[in-house]
Each structure stands twice: as C-alpha cells, then as structure tokens.
Design a protein that fits this description.
The complex is a heterodimer of chains A (about 350) and B (about 650).
Chain A (H helix, E strand, L loop, with lengths): L3 H21 L3 H6 L3 H10 L4 H4 L8 H20 L4 H8 L3 H16 L22 H5 L4 H7 L6 H4 L4 H6 L1 H20 L4 H30 L3 H7 L9 H8 L4 H12 L1 H9 L2 H15 L6 H25 L4 H5 L7
Helix pairs in contact in A: 1-19, 5-19, 7-12, 13-18, 16-17, 17-18, 18-19
Chain B lengths: L1 E2 L2 E9 L3 H11 L3 E2 L5 H12 L13 H22 L7 H5 L5 H41 L7 H5 L4 E8 L1 H9 L7 E8 L4 E9 L3 H9 L4 E2 L10 H29 L3 H22 L3 E2 L3 E9 L3 H11 L4 E5 L10 E2 L8 H7 L10 H15 L3 H17 L1 H21 L26 H30 L3 H6 L4 H17 L8 H15 L1 H8 L9 H25 L1 H23 L3 H39 L13
Antiparallel strand pairs in B: 1-11, 2-9, 2-10, 3-9, 4-6, 4-7, 5-6, 8-9
The chains are: A mainly alpha (about 350), B alpha+beta (about 650).
C-alpha cells in the first residue's frame, strides 16, 4: 500500500484543481439566465469539468436525462480518484461507488414490481461497470420480485431484501431505500475502520454528519407522509450518526408532536436547520447544512476526498434544480432559493 | 539448424467431399490453414477447375454458422451430462480414423439419451429439492430449545395470532431496543445453526395484525412457514420429517441406480458422441476459411516443403479428383517452424520467450545457444554445482522435457568451466590439490582478476560481432540496404564498432598502431552511418533526401550520438560476465571464511553445504537472468525482430 501521506498531496493538488473547475469556473450567474435546457447542456459541454461526460450527448435532453448524466459524472469522478489509492484506502473510496448501484437496483426493482418494461433500462444506469459487484444481467432477467431478490444472493443486499413482496416494493418503497442504505453505510463505516487514525476520525466525522441528516430527513418524512409507527421509524434508521446516537434517535422517533420534534432538532443542529427543514425542501435543508459543514472544515487528510465527493452531490442537486426551474419557467430569483450557496 | 522451408498449397475438391477431405487434413496433423489467402486469385482458380472436376450441382454449401451453433450447444450438453455422471471425456484419434459415427448420428444418439433420461433426471432433481426443503424444516425444528411445546395449540387461540420466524443478531438487538413499543409476546425459542440466527415466536392480538407485520418487516423478519400436516411437539415433527427424508433419499438412490443400469454403456457412447461432435466443430472452423465455387471448394494451407509429396499422396489416394496446387508465396507471410538439432532444440524455449523468428529471418537459436552456454559457463563454472544442475535437469526433463534438457546443457557447460577454473563445490586447488585446472590460483587471485574481466569483454566482442553479422545477413536477405550496409548495426556499424575497439586497444597500448588511425576511421564510419539514407538512396538511384535534408540531419546527428554511447555501453555491459565469475567465487569465499571460524567439522560441512545451496538457488538464478539480459537486450536488439507467425497444425 502506498503511504497515504504521499498520496494525500497528489490528491490534494488534483482535487483543488477539480474544485476550481466545478465551483469557480462554472459561471452560475450566467447559468441562471438560461431559458432552455439545451442552452445549459451546451454550456456544460464546453466546460472543462463536464465535457468528458457530455461529449456524446445530443441536445434535447430533459431533467431526467441530465440527472442520469450527472449521476454518471459522479461515478466517473470517484473512479478517477481510485487511481491514487490501494489497499484499505482504495476499498474505502470504492465503497462510495456502491451508492450508484443502490440507485440502479432500486430502479430495476421498482419496474419489476410494477410489471414495467425493462428494455431501455440499462441506458439509465449510472453505476460503475468496472467496480460493481452486482450481477445486473441476472437481475434484469428476473420476472418477479422473488427472482430479483434471489438474484442478489451473494451481494451485501440480499439479506436486507429477503422476504420482500411485490406489494412492499410498490407501497413501501421507503423500505427498499432505507434497508439498502443501512447496508451501504454499515459497510462504509466498517471500511473506514481500517484506515489510519487521522483519516478514520475525519471520514467518520463526515459520514456521521451525513447519517445524522439522513436520519432526520427520514424521520421527518416518515412522520409527515408515511404514517408508520415510531418503532418502525427507529428500525429503519441508520446507525453511525455523530449527534443522534440511539437514545436521541429513539426520542426523536417517539416525539409526541411537531413542537417536541422541532425543539429537539433545534437543540441538536441549531435553529437555522430547524427553520430550513420546516420551510424549504428537506433535502435542500440538508445540503445547506452539509455545505456549511464541509466549507468550514479544512481537511488535511482523507476527509478532503470525502468532502469533494459530497460537494459533487450538492453541485449535481443544484444543476438538477436549475433544469427543473427552466422547465417550470421559475423566475430567476425564486430559483435561487433552491440552490445551495453558490451565488 | 534453420527455419523449415514452407510451401503454400491450394487444395481444390468436390463440394460434397469437403468434410471428409478436411477430416483427412485434421488426421494428417501437419497442415496449417492459411487464413490470409488471396480470394481474388482463388476465384480465378475456382473458375478454371470448375469444369475439370465434375460434380452434380445438387449439393449446396452448408449453413456452417447454423451447424456450428448446434454443434457447440451439443458439445456443452455432452460435457454437462458427462460431468454429472462422472465420465471423463477423451479425444481419441482411433475413433475418428475408423469412421465411428457421423455428426448426424451423434446428434441423434444425444437426443435419444435426452428423451429417455429426462423423466428420471427431472424426478431426481425434484426429489433432491424436496429433500433440501425438508432438511431446512428439520434444522429449524431441531433448533427449538424446548422441544415439548405444541405449536398447534397456539394456532387454536381465538383472539391471538402468531408467527414464527427468523431474525439476524443485528435485528435482534433492534428488537430488544423496541420491546416496550411492541404490543404482544415475543419469545426467542431457538437458535438456527450454522448461521446462529434467532428463531422467534411472536404472539399478538389479532386486531394488531397489520401493525405487527409492518413492524416485523422493518426488522427483516423471515417468516417460517411449516406445512400444516406436521403436528405435535418439535421433537415429534422432527421425527416425522426425518422419516420423510429417509423415504426421499431411498427414492433418489433407486432412481439413480435405475438411470445407471439403463445407461450402462453411456460411458463409451458419450465419448463416441463427443469425438464426433469435436470433429464436426473443427471441420466447420476450417470449412469457414474455404472459398467456394458452384461445385467445388478451395482451401489454402501451409505445409512443410519436405511433406508435400507425402501429403499429396495421402489425400489423392482416397479422393482422386482432388487437385493440390503449389502456389507462389511471394508477398505472404509463411508460418515458422524451427528446425534445430538435439543440442540446440531446448534453447528454442528462450528464443520463443522473446518472439518467434519470422519465416525470412535467420533462426537465432544456434548462435544464441552457443553464446548463452559460454556466458553461463564463464559466470558459473563449477564441476560439482554444474553436476547438480545437470542431474536436476535430468529429473525435470521427465516432466518438462525442453526445460529439463536446457538445464542439463547449462549444467554441463558449468562443469566444463569448473575444470577450467579448478572448482568443485566452491573448493579450489589449494583445498583439493588433485583438482585439474587450466590456470593457477583460482579466479580471485590478484593476477587473475583483470584477466577474467578481460575475458568478459572479449566474450562481448565475439558475441556482438556475431550479432552484427546476423543483422547484416537478415537485412540484406530482405533487401534493406540502408540497415544492412550503412545502418548502425550493419556493415559500417560493425566497422565503427571495430574501430572503437582498436581505438581503445591503442589507447591502453595493447596494439601498437598510432592512435589517429583507428580514430580517423571511427569518425569516417560514423559519418557513413549518419548518411545512411542518402547513401542507400544513391545506390538505388532515388532522391537523396525525400523528406528534406534539414530534418534528416537533425534526427541523425542525435542518432549518431546515441550510436557512440550505445557502442560503449554495449561493450562495457559484457564486463558483467567476468564480474559474475568473480562474484561466484567470492560468495563461496565468504562461506569458506565463516566455516574456518568454527572447529567442529560437522558444523564446517554444514556451513559449506549451506553456501553451496545458496549459490545454486540464488546465484544460479541471477546468472541465468543476467545471461538472458545480455541476449535479449544487448544482442537480440541488434539482429532479431521475432515477429514470426507460429505454424499451428490443425488437430482435433
């Protein structure tokens, strides 16, 4: 294994350049003036950061397609980072590629459960073909949910989805999402344990923060939209958060009313987040907070790489929001409210 | 000691005889298909012979792609069946020679086998699956702690429902953390081996059914459904299941026996089918390379020159209408077959590591073998250690013929040079006065060290001279005057090299000629090398600088600097031959000194033995690699391209 200290400086230079290309060189003000998605695509095609992934894309793309392309962009960026690492470090960074597998697995599963056509589905995949451990061919040849789950045998997700019925896949899609994420974060944290102390602490800190927000989001949505019991909410929650350890999490799930819930959120994450959570889109609230957290902390270790990967998510969300804004002809000033601190 | 001469043949025959003729080619085992044939020329020939070879035009060209896929599927099936029945499949030339069964018969036999055995194999498969299921039920029943509870009684409760299921240890922790929010009774009733998962019995009020099910789902609950026919306590149920398993096992055994007796001859018939299918597969592969007329086919093949008559005879004996025409081989690249005598043959292994000589190139094997043996002998000269290599080679040759033979030759040269140095297992004349040797004092004596290093250089000069000569011949053979005459590895390159040697010798005073003579020659020859392209063009009466003089001189002046440097480094590189000879003696000397520090004779012998083992294993390997390096890097680089195509004879 190459010394992580040698690698750090190489990666730092690379990431500084990449961040510059993505965050600084993209002229967000100009982007906000676009009135068609084609204008945006053309602009991105010419940008240094996105030209690789967009070079074969024809015009006339919609929000959906752009989301897929940006998903692939993230996969590609992570693959590029892998060149710098070996051993436990490579395994750890590789674990981030699994998130795109989860997106694709859920996509196939939803279509199978609803008896929809699978023909064009592979054109929507965003996972890394080189690094995936998922037998996609097998999954695509399944006729029903049972066969699909059996197809997952040998992957870390088999146990999570065992016993899943067609009805579950349609009505309780949060079940699939949350169960898959439990495995994803569990395996990621296990891999982080094999890193050197400095890197381990940094990455566990960042992942822990992300887990906290995902849990808050989950409980918030569960309480407002899914109407499931607090015990179920707790069972579906992710482990490994920084602030919300088991007892706090349990209290949050069992909060009797909205006020109690909000009070707890305010106490733990501050009033800004509490207000954002209730006033704007929940994922947006999380991205606001993550952006603040990642910008305030300067990492001189593997945290730098993680921070870059999470920042990619934020940029991708911004671009998707802009596409949506263009589609619904949202005024520029309104649209700005859906974007995270880039202007 | 060369590259075998090849002939390009065109086999032209009746269309309906294509398969048997190809079979003859396969059985002949010394024919290679020429895939890059001249289709335009072939169609002319086909036209010419169409009338000569009479044939009813009813026979159509087969759909080879269709047959190929059918054949491949059938082979897979035969392999699967044989694997299941434990039959070892072999390719048997005898079966093919005596025309055992045709492809069509093979397919029919296979289909018959499938239809008669399908029912039995399906039944066996079903029973096996059923048995698996029962074994799982039994495993769960046996895992229950209290094997006297009666599950049926719980099922009879009026206001309560129950579920039995399995939870992982992780989910068990989650369940424990949520006990208070669950309305019902949770009972851990067993641990299922070998996964150590937990078996739970959950009893709840019927009105909370949906809530309970959802709660359990969030824990990845795997419901255990025991068929209703099983009643009683877990112990009793386990017994019932065991009985059923026994019945099933017996059934499976009987069915397997039935299938075995029914297929008593299956072993030999599978082999017959397999051989027929393999022959067909090969035949189609070859037929796809043929060109076709209305009634005839044409196939291009390569064959050894010495084989032509024999081949012609064996084909035309069976098929009198077949025409075998010798074609021009200009412009094509014939495959290479190396032909070396018993001494050089093992060294082909090393040559092939670098690449196969092309058909029009000189086979470097003999020169390589001689120079390699010489270098190895100089670097690793010892009678005893050489003998051990020789014996090891002899033993190895039983398993890996050529590699073993190679080691035997290296061992033998090591022994010869052992006699030159007077060294037996590292011991020299002053320890063993009766040892024969060509010079006094051993390699490490002060007066011998410079001599041995000089021998290394002398060896280098000889080896490089050989390489130059090889390159000159190779280049002139293909008409490359620029490289062969004026190139840095051509005639003038060699003259430059010799001038360099004489300049050095004159400098150190070993040759009594004025220094300016070789020095002037050196410059003159270098100038010729720089001007290689215009000189070659002048000989061919072409334009002197087709790409412009400026660019040419810039490039070639740099190249001439590289030539000067590489000549120096190439030659010096051979000092290693002498240096490793010294190293060989030096390494042993180190062990000798250690052994002199102890008094115990057994310990002394042990230390010397250890030294010898280390030298044999480690130093032997290093010398082997250094020898290879000299060949591949300093010598092959000069004269050997190694882009030959292997002669692959069609075989079953």
């Amino acid at each position: 294994m190459r010394s992580p200290y040698d690698t750090h400086y190489a990666v730092k230079t690379k990431i500084t350049a990449k961040r510059g290309r993505i965050f600084k060189k993209l002229e967000w003000k100009k982007i906000l003036d676009f009135t068609t998605v084609d204008q945006l695509t053309d602009y991105l095609k010419k940008s240094e950061a996105f030209q690789d992934v967009l070079k074969d894309v024809k015009n006339n793309i919609n929000r959906d397609n752009l989301e897929i392309i940006l998903g692939r962009f993230k996969t590609l960026e992570i693959e590029k980072l892998l060149h710098y690492y070996s051993g436990a470090y490579k395994e750890f960074i590789e674990s981030f590629l699994a998130e795109s597998d989860l997106t694709d697995i859920s996509l196939i599963l939803r279509r199978i459960a609803r008896n929809e056509d699978l023909n064009d589905i592979s054109s929507r995949f965003i996972h890394s073909e080189r690094f995936t451990n998922i037998p996609y061919d097998k999954l695509l040849s399944s006729n029903n949910v049972d066969q699909f789950v059996e197809g997952l045998k040998g992957t870390p997700y088999y146990n999570d989805l065992r016993g899943l019925t067609d009805a579950d896949a349609i009505k309780r899609d949060f079940h699939i999402e949350m169960k898959l994420y439990v495995s994803y974060y569990k395996s990621q944290l296990e891999k982080a344990d094999k890193l050197f102390m400095d890197d381990k602490e940094a990455v566990k800190g960042i992942i822990g923060t992300k887990i906290d927000f995902l849990n808050v989001l989950w409980i918030y949505r569960a309480k407002n939209y899914y109407h499931i019991t607090p015990a179920e909410m707790l069972n579906y929650s992710l482990e490994g958060g920084n602030e919300l350890k088991f007892h706090k999490l349990k209290k949050l799930c069992f909060a009797e009313n909205k006020d109690d819930f909000n009070e707890m959120i305010g106490e733990t994450f501050g009033n800004k987040f509490k207000n954002d959570l209730n006033n704007i889109d929940t994922s947006l609230a999380m991205n606001y907070f993550m952006y603040d957290y990642l910008s305030k902390n300067v990492f001189e270790n593997l945290g730098l790489v993680l921070s870059y990967i999470y920042m990619l998510d934020i940029v991708i969300n911004n671009l998707t929001a802009i596409t949506e804004g263009i589609k619904y002809r949202l005024p520029k000033d309104n649209l700005k409210n859906y974007l995270v601190n880039i202007i | 000691m060369a590259i075998e001469k090849m002939a390009s043949l065109k086999v032209i025959g009746k269309l309906h005889e294509i398969e048997p003729i190809i079979k003859e080619l396969i059985l002949y085992e010394n024919v290679s298909i020429n895939a890059e044939s001249d289709h335009y020329g072939n169609s002319y020939l086909i036209h010419e012979y169409e009338a000569e070879i009479e044939e009813s035009s009813e026979y159509n060209i087969q759909d080879y792609f269709g047959i190929e896929s059918e054949c491949k599927d059938a082979i897979l099936l035969v392999e699967d069946i044989s694997k299941e029945l434990g039959i070892k499949l072999n390719l048997e030339k005898d079966l093919i020679e005596k025309n055992d069964i045709s492809y069509e018969q093979a397919i029919e036999m296979l289909n018959n086998y499938k239809s008669t055995n399908k029912k039995i194999t399906d039944e066996i498969k079903n029973k096996k699956e059923e048995k698996e299921k029962l074994l799982y039920y039994k495993k769960v029943m046996d895992s229950i702690f209290d094997n006297s509870i009666e599950l049926k009684k719980i099922a009879d409760l009026n206001f309560f429902d129950y579920e039995i299921g399995i939870l992982s240890n992780e989910s068990r922790v989650k369940l424990k953390n949520n006990y208070e929010s669950f309305i019902g009774i949770i009972n851990r009733i067993g641990v299922v081996k070998p996964t150590a998962e937990n078996l739970y019995l959950i009893i709840y009020l019927s009105q909370f059914k949906e809530q309970t099910t959802n709660f359990l789902k969030s824990l990845n609950w795997r419901r255990f459904n025991l068929p209703e026919k099983y009643t009683g306590t877990p112990a009793q149920i386990s017994e019932q299941i065991t009985e059923e398993i026994d019945v099933l096992s017996k059934g499976i055994k009987e069915l397997s026996y039935l299938s075995e007796t029914k297929n008593k001859n299956v072993n030999s018939s599978m082999n017959r089918i397999y051989n027929a299918l393999k022959l067909e597969e090969r035949t189609i592969e070859i037929a796809k390379e043929a060109d076709f007329g209305d009634n005839i086919f044409l196939l291009n093949v390569w064959i050894r020159n010495s084989d032509i008559n024999n081949f012609r005879e064996s084909i035309t004996k069976a098929y009198d209408k077949v025409k075998i025409i010798e074609a021009e081989k200009n412009g094509s690249s014939p495959p290479t077959v190396l032909k070396n005598n018993w001494f050089f043959r093992p060294f082909e292994l090393i040559v092939k590591l670098y690449g196969l000589p092309s058909y029009r190139e000189l086979d470097p094997t003999p020169f390589m073998a001689l120079t390699y043996c010489l270098a190895f002998g100089i670097m690793f000269g010892d009678i005893g250690q050489g003998f051990i290599y020789f014996m090891a080679g002899y033993l190895l040759s039983k398993k890996m013929d050529l590699a073993g033979q190679l080691l035997m030759r290296l061992g033998a040269t090591s022994m010869v040079f052992g006699l030159v140095y007077g060294s037996l297992f590292g011991l020299e004349k002053h320890q063993l006065p009766w040892l024969p040797s060509l010079f006094e004092g051993g390699p490490l004596s002060a007066e011998n060290i410079p001599k041995i290093l000089a021998v290394g250089i002398a060896y280098g000069i000889i080896a490089l001279s050989g390489s130059f000569i090889y390159n000159i011949i190779n280049s002139l053979k293909i008409g490359d005057k620029e490289e062969g005459l004026f190139g840095k590895n051509g005639v003038f390159g060699y003259l430059f090299f010799l001038s360099f040697i004489f300049t050095t010798l004159s400098l150190v005073g070993l040759v009594k000629i004025p220094l300016y003579v070789p020095l002037l020659l050196l410059v003159a020859f270098l100038a010729v090398i720089v001007l290689k392209e215009p000189l070659a063009n002048a000989l061919d009466k072409k334009e002197l600088f087709p790409h412009g003089a400026g660019a040419y001189f810039t490039e070639n002046i740099f190249e001439s600097i590289e030539t000067m440097l590489s000549t120096l480094s190439n030659t010096v590189s051979f000092v290693r031959v002498g240096a490793f000879a010294l190293n060989h003696a030096g390494l042993f000397l180190a062990f000798m000194i250690i052994s002199e520090l102890v008094d115990n004779i057994v310990l002394k012998i042990l230390i010397l033995a250890l030294g010898n083992i280390l030298i044999l294993v480690l130093e032997g390997l290093i010398v082997f690699i250094q020898g290879l390096r000299l060949q591949f890097y300093e010598m092959f680089n000069k004269y050997f391209v190694g882009e030959g195509i292997e002669f692959k004879s069609v075989k079953l």
